């Protein structure tokens, strides 16, 4: 089996750091789960943090479908970075999403579209993000209903993952538990039964003024600075698995 993932920081695995550097994330965990179910899997991950939907749906999608041999299944996530910027164009987002759907259909590749969980309760401008995300979820609902080769894994409307226990300290990316929960939901959609991780009940209290000020200084202001200067957190980065990497079935 051959599995390729395209997307942004969510698919790259930001928030799930590994010893010695690098990140893992839900897509890597899906590859491990598929390897266990199928006796091994060839895996590629072309996702790069900070990417807008256009390069995901064009450059990454085209590179994924050009892999030799061709993938059997692709996971696709994007537009979260677009939602946080001015100039949101719903028609353009739909056209790019349908491009990936059409090209995978023509290539005979099964497509799993997944949404990231809902971060809006803890983000500045969360209402704007939510309005845009709601419209996008409706679009993907319609695509999945009308397109046989598409499966939609809707993490955005999973109320469990809105809890702080699944999120990294930057409030934008999932922590290791959050990535594990997403991986389990994706594997289930692919027909691989897994246990669904869940955090203990009860979340930490909301941050006070001092903690909130530290958060703004550490995460929000640098993000604003990158927007003002036209930079991205992914500048200079390359995919972590740009070609087929063999993942063997884990030992019992």
**Terminal Cα span:** 20 Å
CATH architecture field of the largest domain: 3-Layer(aba) Sandwich
Helix tally? 8
Main sheet characteristics: 6 strands, mixed
Give the C-level CATH assignment of the largest domain: Alpha Beta
C-alpha-based Rg, rounded: 18 Å
The total domain count is: 2
Structural class: alpha/beta
Overall form: globular
Strand content: 5-15%
Order of helices and strands: EHHEHEHHEHEHHE
State mean pLDDT (0 to 100 scale): 89
Strand order of the largest sheet: 5-4-3-1-2-6
The number of distinct β-strands equals: 6
What's this entry about, in short?
The chain is of the alpha/beta class. The protein has helices at 9-12, 26-38, 53-65, 80-83, 90-107, 126-146, 176-189, 209-229, and strands spanning 2-6, 41-45, 73-76, 110-115, 150-154, 241-247. The protein has two domains: 2-204, Rossmann fold (3-Layer(aba) Sandwich), CATH 3.40.50; 206-235, no CATH class.
Keywords:
252 residues; alpha/beta; Rossmann fold; 2 domains; 6-stranded mixed sheet; 8 helices; 6 strands
Describe the structure.
The protein is α/β, with parallel strands linked by helices. The protein folds into two domains: 203 residues, SGNH hydrolase (Rossmann fold), CATH 3.40.50.1110; 30 residues, no CATH class. Helices cover 43% and strands 13% of the residues. The protein has eight helices and six strands. The protein has a six-stranded mixed sheet, sandwiched between helices. Helix 6 links the parallel strand 4 and strand 5. It is globular and about 55 Å long. The mean pLDDT is 89.
